[in-house]
Amino acid sequence: MKRETKLAHYGRMATPGPANPPIVKASTILHDTVASYKATKAARETDDAVLSYGRRGTTTAHQLAAALADLEGGEACFLFPTGVAAVAGALTPYLGAGDHLLVVDTIFPATRSYCEKSLKRNGVTVDYIPWDTTDLTPYVKPETKLVMVESPASQTYEVMDLPALCASAHAHDLLVAADNTYGSGWLYRPLELGCDLSVVAGTKYIGGHADAMMGAVIAKGRVVGPLRAHTAMSGQTLGPDEAYACLRGLRTLGLRLERHGENGLALAQWFPDQPEVAKVHHPGLPGHPGHAVWQRDASGSNGLLTVEFKAGFDAEGFVDRLALFSIGSSWGGFESLAMPSSPDAGRLFPESRAGAMIRFHAGLEHIDDLVADLAASFDTARGR
C-alpha cells in the first residue's frame, strides 16, 4: 500500500464507525476479574497497544503511536508531551554516570542544552563532532555508548551521510539516535538509513496546525526494551486531545509537505538574486553541504530556509516590514514565519558569516504572494 493511502487510513475503526478514532480520555481502566487485571499488566510489558492505565496512553495515543511507527519504519513508538521531552527520552535510557556521548555540533540548541546541563550533571561526558563525520574512530572512547545526530542540521541544514556514519557507529557497538523533525517521517527515514532511534517533534509538521505540542521516539531492534521501560517508569505520555490533533494532522502530511517544499525551494532560489543576500542555506540547492547525499537519501525538502544577508543590512527591520511572515518560535504549521537566527552560538566548529541571518518557514500561502511580500520589504530598504 502506498504511503499516501496509509496516511488516510491510520487508526481506521470497524464500520459503521467514525472516520477518525475518537478522543478517549481515561485514567483508570476497569476490570471484572483479578485475572483480567493481572493479564493486562503482564501484556503491556511487550504490547504497547494494551489499554491498562492512563499514564501509558489511551486508544487515541495508541493509534497515533502505531501510525508513527509504521510511517518511520520502526518496531515501536513512544509519545512525549514535547519534542524536547522526546530528545531526553531518546538519550536517558542508554546513558549513565561514566558513559560518553557523541553529538553532532550542528544539533538543535535545546538538545545541546539538555546534554550540557542535565546529562553532564549526572556524570555523562559529552563531545561534539563535525557534521560531515563518517568515521567515528577518532572520537570513540571505551565508555562511548551513543551518537546523537540531526540531519539536515538545525538552522543551517547540512546533510549528514547517515548510512556511512551508522556503519561506523555499529562497528564500534554504538547506538545512533537521529533528530528527524525536519523530515518528520515523510521526507526522511533515519531508521532505514541505519539509525536505531528516530526522534520527531510532532509539534511541527505532524500536528501541522500550530496548535498541538508532541514528541515521539520511534525505535527498532535492541533499543526498544530499554526505551519502553524508561518511558513507563518516568511517566512520559501524551494527552488524548494532542494525540487526536496529531493523528488528524497525519491525514494531510504528504500534501502539506509537498506545498511547503515547493514554496521553500522557490524562495531559496529567489533570494540569491537579491543584492542584499550573501548566501542561502537550503539542502535542495546545488552546492549546499551534503546536497548529493540529500538527493540520495531524502524524498524532498520542507519549508525551511535560512538567509544570510550581507554585512550592514538591517535584517530585523526587513522582517518587521513583512506582512505575511509572522515572527514566532517553532515551524511546521500552515503559516509562514521569519525570525533571527544565530546558528553558530555554542558551536565548536563555527563558520565565517557575512552578516545577520534570518530563518524563514514557507507556509501554505501562494508563492506569488510570499515573494511579493518579501520584494516589498526589499523595495522599502532600497528607498523605493
From TrEMBL:
> Residue positions of the PTM N6-(pyridoxal phosphate)lysine?
K204
GO BP field:
L-cysteine catabolic process to pyruvate; transsulfuration
- Key words, A-Z: Lyase, Pyridoxal phosphate
Judged by the first EC level, this protein's enzyme class is lyase
* EC number assigned by the record: 4.4.1.13
The record lists the membrane-crossing segments as none
Q: Which GO terms describe its molecular function?
A: cysteine-S-conjugate beta-lyase activity; pyridoxal phosphate binding
User: Which Pfam families does its entry note?
Assistant: Cys_Met_Meta_PP
Signal peptide start-end: none
InterPro entries (UniProt xref): Cys/Met-Metab_PyrdxlP-dep_enz, Cys_b_lyase_bac, PyrdxlP-dep_Trfase, PyrdxlP-dep_Trfase_major, PyrdxlP-dep_Trfase_small
What family does this belong to?
Belongs to the trans-sulfuration enzymes family.
Q: What is this protein called?
A: Cystathionine beta-lyase
